Amino acid sequence: MDYNTRRNMLILPEYGRNIQKMVEHATSLENREERNKAVNEIINVMGNMNPHLRDVNDFKHKLWDQVAQMANFEIDLDSPYPTPKKETFTAKPNIIPYLHNNLKYRYLGRTIVQLIKAASEFEEGEKKTELIKIITNHMKKSYIMWNKDTVDDSVIFEKLSELSNGKLKVEGDAKLTETKDIFGKKRKKKKIVFEKVKKQ
Fold this sequence. Notes:
It contains 8 helices and no strands. It is mainly alpha-helical. It has 2 domains: about 90 residues; about 80 residues, no CATH class. The chain is elongated.
């Protein structure tokens, strides 16, 4: 009996063993014209297996590359695309450079810290005031979500001043959005949707 464990390993399992055998047969053909004709037929079959990808850019290019992969890059073809190199598929991907600088208040996230830095460089005026309002309200929301507790507005204003090195300050009787309003709108919306469904 012919077990899979005794067969050659499938290079691209998604195409199955029959396609793999077709590619192996095409590779063994000595006549170049016959070999090209066979591979074109194989690519048509592979395309029929994924009809939803026919309109995707470079889909044909991908199929030609996959045939080369299944032939272990040992097939000589008149491909309409540049012949891929084995190293392209075996090379390790570049290491993603992660940011290692630690945030003082992790619950605020890196974006808020960057916004605070950007707002510090704004000229005094209405735009800067509005930006500070948006930042502080988001800081309050993040604080409540992280700590599951209410927070006094003065605490948020202190953190804003600290993170901006004293460049951004909220003075006077400024008030942020109430805690119940920050999360209440979403709950209210869900309640309205539920009531509509119930009526139906």
